[in-house]
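Handout, section 3.2

Students often ask what a structure token actually looks like in practice. Rather than define it abstractly, here is a full record for DUF7702 domain-containing protein. The first block is the sequence as you would receive it.
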Amino acid sequence: MELTVRNNISIAQIVLFLPFLAVAIILCVRHGFGSNAGWLFLVLFSLFRIVGASLQLAATANPRNIGLFVGALTLQSIGLSDFIIVLLALLNRALGSMKKGRNAIVNPRVLFLSQLLVFVGVILGSVGGSNSGSRYAETGEYKTSTLTEAGISLTIAGFVLLVIATITVGLNVSYADPGEKRVVLAVALSLPFLLVRVIYSAAGTFNRNSVFNNVSGDAYVFLGTAVIEEIIIVLIIEAIGLTLQVRPKTNDPSSQSPLLRLFGHLRGRYGNYEMERLNQSEHRNSGAFNERVNLNSR
């Protein structure tokens, strides 16, 4: 089997995101899975990219298995939101140190609500991507669903809130602890690359015939406007994360992130639901394929 450009991209993603996953796990263990830093979502993102790339390779080797194709598309569509959640959580960490010098610049609840907004977009995008994949398996035509469009709209809104919060915190970064100022720097450096990634997702969602389309789009455009940006953002976040001091545990409710724990719980529940849905879709499509083969052989 001759490898395509997308196959080579998938192989590169697996090779790169395996060590990224290891570093993300180290950061989780070091800083805590439930802390404001949101490292758990960096672990999830790395897993999504590894599993998604593996499914893409498996789908190429076994094109009759539509479930593999649907799974790869779904995982590709939901990874963007994890970045926004992680960066919002990093800003919240910086805000925690600013409280020692002056009142909070941005209310942490605003950041939590922004994360919730983005997470709702994740759910909508996941369900919409699964529906589009199932429709593609039945009709051979990939059409973006309304749920996917609503999900990417919420993601764009979350990105705008992230930019506003970053500017506000950045203008007051002098009030942060010296060791925490680099957190704001990491978020600011990530924003241009994240903007390109958001544009890629938005263009592919609202213009299905464009080169940004996940199914029929240009693989080199996908590499240059999505994959490379994701790799750079992960490198920035993990490089900064390894230099941060471990913050002591506290019982102060404002230093905890209940929404992150809620996100992890809900995403785990939804992941189980999605796997069941993919299995059902695979069995249904396999039966339809066998029926068509039998009719053609008569």
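Discussion prompt for tutorial groups: The chain has one domain: 5-246+257-269. How would you have guessed this from the sequence alone?
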